[in-house]
Structures are given as structure tokens and as C-alpha cells.
Amino acid sequence: MTKPRNRMRGFTLIELLAVVAITAILAAIAAPPMSQFITRNRIASQANDLLSLLASARMQAIRERTPVGVCATNDPKGSADCVSDGDWGAGIAVYAFNALGNRAADAAGTPLPPVRILQAANNGNVVTRNGASGPIRFGQSGRWLDFAGNGNIAFILSSDNSDEPAERRAVCLYPSGNSRVVATRSNGRGTGASC
């Protein structure tokens, strides 16, 4: 009598290599959309942080019945002094201002520390602002005090990845003090962001 042979069960090397090849092809197809998704989410998160900062500065001006300003700072972890060079990407600080438009000070004349600071995002994103580069001040009513008929302010947040169209968001500030985020995309013909 002959014994029946026990067949070995499992995958052959050819079958295993075919599955690995198919997985590699699918991963190569999915990688570019994933990087774009991550870039879009970083820009959206940074835009929402800026929107929150502007809204909290406005609400503090209304609540405290005193002018509150938002300005660019090159040293958000240190002194957080306002700068006027227009580089809003290094950091943004919120200060209480006096009626003359200067930073509020204590009785000894020392400027008060910032109320809130938005740190720079270290992910290669760029923040620019249209118009004048000085502080933005909100008054007791929550309106933008420095409005001189120049229109709205747009903070443009964009990726600096040159391999693909730049992802952009614009945080728009209106003379009423309200702000909102506008999603845009550049296709090489202008910024693609407007308020």
C-alpha cells in the first residue's frame, strides 16, 4: 500500500513577489496625493490658528474696553517686540495698546508683556500680509482702528513646495473687525488668494 502524499501548503515565491509588486505600485500611486493632503492640512491648521488669534484679540478689546493690537514679531520666544518689516511668518503677538496707539505700560513705564503669542510654524509655510506692515489694532467696539479706506487685510499663508502648485489660504480681516479663512490655490497665474 502506498501512502498518500501530504502536500505542503503555503505561498510560492512567485505568488509572494507578485503581491509585493502590486503593493509597491499602489503605494507609488497613493504617495503624491498623501503629501498634498498633509500640506493642505498644515496650511489649514496655521490659517485657523491665525483666525483664532485675530478673533481672541478682537474679543479682548471688546471685553477689556481698551485697544488691543496684533503685530509681527521676530522673537516670539523672547521679548516678542513688534517689528515693522512686514515679516509675519516669524511669529505674531497680541498686546494691549493705550489710547495713543502705543503698547500699554505699567506704572513704571515698562511695556506690558504680550497677551498671546502665535509661534512660527517650522514646516516651510510662508505668511505674508498685504498693505501696511504695522500693527493691527482693534478698538473697544471690536472694529479695526487703523482702517483708512485701504480695503481689507489679507494674510496669505502658502506652502513653499515648488514641485507642485502652491497651496494657499487667505485669512481676511475686514474693517468691521470680523475675519474669515478663504481657501485658494495658485495655478501660476497670480496668487489665487483675495478677500
Condensed summary:
With 195 residues, this protein is α+β, with helices and mostly antiparallel strands. The longest helix is centred in the first third of the chain and has 52 residues.
Keywords:
single chain; 195 residues; alpha+beta; four-stranded antiparallel sheet; 1 helix; 27% helix; elongated
Description:
Its main location: membrane. One of its GO terms (biological process) is protein secretion by the type II secretion system. By secondary structure, this protein is α+β, with helices and mostly antiparallel strands. It has one helix and eight strands; from the N terminus they run αββββββββ. It has one helix spanning 13-64, and strands at 68-72, 91-96, 116-119, 126-129, 136-138, 153-158, 167-173, 179-185. It has a four-stranded antiparallel beta sheet, with helices on one face. It has a four-stranded antiparallel beta sheet with strand order 4-6-7-8, with helices on one face. Strand 7 and strand 8 (179-185) form a beta hairpin. The longest helix is centred in the first third of the chain and has 52 residues, at 13-64. The radius of gyration is 26 Å and the shape is elongated. The chain starts with 12 loop residues before the first helix and ends in a 10-residue tail after the last strand. The model is unreliable at 187-191 (pLDDT under 50).
